Amino acid sequence: MMNYKIMKSGEAWDLLETRTEQVIGTYKTAQDAQVAKTNFNRGYGFDGWTPAFMLEKYFVEPKKKSRISTK
Length: 71
Fold this sequence. Notes:
Shape: globular
Helix content: 10-25%
Number of strands: 3
Order of helices and strands: EEEH
Strand order of the largest sheet: 1-2-3
Strand content: 25-35%
């Protein structure tokens, strides 16, 4: 199972933690997001279970991707 995936978000790229559905990073390029994804999948971070309070520095409220499309 992959713990992380990359999703396009406007002009940026989000690194999404698949188990928690939290965005743990936002990057300007797909290449930067891929490098971060590789690092996280190799053990950097919390192995797919990042505590929400760890993201408070970057987001007021941890962003979650909705399973329901708003289109």
